[in-house]
Design brief:
The chain is an alpha/beta fold and about 425 residues long. The protein folds into 2 domains: about 5-30 and about 295-405, Aspartate Aminotransferase, domain 1 (Alpha-Beta Complex); about 40-295, 3-Layer(aba) Sandwich (Aspartate Aminotransferase, domain 2). Helices cover about 40% and strands about 15% of the residues. It is built from 15 helices and 17 strands. The protein has helices spanning about 5, 35-50, 60-80, 95-110, 130-135, 155-160, 180-190, 205, 210-215, 240-245, 280-295, 295-315, 345-355, 365-375, 390-405, and strands at about 15-20, 20-25, 25, 90, 115-120, 140-145, 165-170, 195-200, 220, 235, 255-260, 265, 320-325, 335-340, 355-360, 360, 380. The strands form 5 sheets. The protein has a 7-stranded mixed beta sheet with strand order 4-10-9-8-7-5-6, sandwiched between helices. Strands 13-14-17-16 form a 4-stranded antiparallel beta sheet, covered by helices on one side. Helix 13 (about 345-355) crosses helix 15. The N and C termini lie far apart (about 45 Å). The chain binds pyridoxal-5'-phosphate (PLP).
């Protein structure tokens, strides 16, 4: 049976104390997650026993490293329900995956006047690459608004999809926690002739994700937000799209034959993996996927609903604290953003840090969304498999202490 108190024993860093004797309370999982012993051991084992480049050598270590690397690709393909490992491109991060789509697909397919739909809740990683590519191609960005309660405005869907070439939508918002109805969006987008790019940086770590059921065209994900190493991540795309797309980066391994003025390219996914890839990190991501599979993604999600329900109940008891995003915990992930009257989020995060709690304050790489919410920044606590009710209680106590010690006048900015 899933028990976060047992799960947390697998994470050596959670034994840490900070600021003297304060136990570390890690509540910045939407930024990055901690690593279980199994992932750390996997990295050490790779560097101690198997370190080699992949796909190139004929010697024993090269074959071992290649087998581990390709094995990790197969694990990730199965984890997200891809039809095969040809559809998984290893990248450094969700950011790199989103840039890959914007550059490789966008530059080849967008022309002046074309519409690229981007939701108002997108992370800058799923916005700025499209700004760069629309500026270069003459296409235009169409914002998809959100409702006051933090959902995509589905009434606006027919309007924004009209004439769209691609829809860029996050599976789960890193600020509001909102889980977006990807299948519904994909069906409507396809009916309107548009492709769908899903930013799964927050969704894939927390939700049972099946690309076949989602019916999207691209899914970007991040390894370090799902217990894997930093520098790991990937892109899933339908094979026929990857086949048709030009390469993103050029260099070794992504070619078949090279002449001085032209080249032919490798088959997918290698066409998109130029140079020496992040070998150890991708193998470590495979170990993280094994770990999540052993926990069971249904239990991971059930735990998240349970702890977010508790956190929302407790936070709502605090006077002058406003929580953003959907009220229903089953419609949101493990991200809880809030504004506390009289305290700027940066001051708040600094104060709670002195109690050993790591929470995030700022615009969370979502400045357009901050404008919609009418705040310069929010405080954000984000939960994962090792967080317990004790962590929520510690947060509530630290917020109380912050209010007592540092309140300094002012009110809600809305
Ligand atoms: C929704 C969302 N998209 C993209 C990213 C970028 O992910 P990465 O750190 O893997 O580049 C983040 C990171 O915070 C995110 O929350």
């Amino acid at each position: 049976m899933f028990d976060p108190k047992v799960v947390r024993k697998d994470f050596p860093i959670l034994e840490r104390r900070v600021h003297g004797d304060k136990p570390l309370v890690w509540l910045d999982n939407a930024s990055t997650t901690q690593k279980p012993r199994r992932v750390i051991d996997c990295l050490v084992d790779f560097y101690e026993h198997h370190n080699s480049n992949v796909h190139r050598g004929v010697y024993a270590l090269a074959e071992e490293a290649t087998e581990l690397y390709e094995g990790a690709r197969a694990k990730i393909a199965a984890f997200i329900g891809a039809s095969g490992k040809r559809e998984i491109v290893f990248t450094r991060s969700a950011t790199e995956s989103l840039n890959l789509v914007a550059n490789a697909w966008g530059r080849a397919n967008l022309k002046p006047g074309d519409k690229v739909v981007v939701t108002e809740m997108e992370h800058h990683s799923n916005l700025i690459p499209w700004q760069l590519v629309t500026q270069a191609t003459g296409a235009q960005i169409v914002p998809w608004p959100i409702t006051d309660d933090g959902f995509l405005d589905l009434e606006a869907m027919p309007r924004v999809l009209d004439g769209a070439k691609i829809v860029c939508v996050s599976q789960m918002s890193n600020v509001l926690g909102t889980i977006n109805p990807i299948r519904q969006v994909a069906d409507a987008a396809h009916a309107a002739g548009a492709l769908v790019l899903v930013d799964g940086a927050q969704g894939v770590p927390h939700l049972i994700t099946n690309v076949a059921e989602m019916e999207a065209d691209f899914l970007a994900f991040s390894g370090h937000k799902m217990l894997g190493p930093t520098g790991s991540g990937g892109l899933w795309a339908r094979a026929e799209l990857l086949d048709a797309m030009p390469p993103f980066l050029g260099g070794g391994e992504m070619i078949l034959e090279v002449w001085i003025d032209h080249a032919t390219y490798n088959e997918i996914p290698y066409k998109f993996e130029a140079g020496t890839p992040n070998i150890a990190q991708s193998i470590g991501l495979g170990a993280a996927v094994d770990y999540l599979n052993d926990l069971g993604m249904e239990d991971v999600r059930a735990h998240e609903i349970e702890i977010v329900t508790y956190a929302l109940d407790e936070l709502r008891k605090i006077d002058g604290l406003k929580v953003f995003g959907p009220a229903d915990p089953t419609k949101r992930g493990g991200v809880v953003s809030f504004w506390m009257e009289d305290l700027h989020p940066h001051d708040l995060a600094t104060i709670v840090d002195t109690e050993g709690l790591a929470i995030r304050a700022g615009h969370h790489c979502a400045q357009p969304l901050m404008r919609v919410l009418g705040v310069p920044a929010t405080s954000r606590a984000s939960f994962y498999v090792y967080n317990t009710h004790d962590d929520v209680d510690a947060l509530v106590a630290a917020l109380g202490k912050a209010r007592e010690t540092f309140a300094r006048g002012g009110g809600l900015p809305f």
